Amino acid sequence: MERTLSRHTTPVHLWIVGIVSLLWNSFGCYDYTMTKLDPADYLGSMGLSQAAMDYMTGLPAWLTAFWALGVWGSLAGSLLLLARSRHAVTAFAASLTGFVVSQVAEAILPRPAGIMSPAMYVVTGVIAVALLAQLLYARRQAANGVLR
Hints:
By secondary structure, the protein is mainly alpha-helical. Helix content is 75%, strand content 0%. The chain is elongated. The two termini are 29 Å apart.
């Protein structure tokens, strides 16, 4: 007997993408939280110089707000994706906006030499690609009627 999918059936790929994105985006929230709650130990454990730690803890409030929008927006997007909510698109778009604004601002603001290692540029690129992919995936699922 042939089984047909109803419009209420959640595709397996949505669960896979949703869970992987939730795990991935949770790390950004962990990083943000630890940087705010215990910056000396957390940032020090990453081998950052005192100048780099001072830079990270001295970010302007508006930049911190865009960083928060980026990390918490992506976590919200993952949760909304798993809930099959069309609002996942908005959350991922807000997250990408927060990320782009914070990256542009950090490129413009003066910062200590050597704060960004080559590996950090790679990580930043991976984050950008992941955020864009999550947004495009959520848009596609909303267009296909999977998100309601």
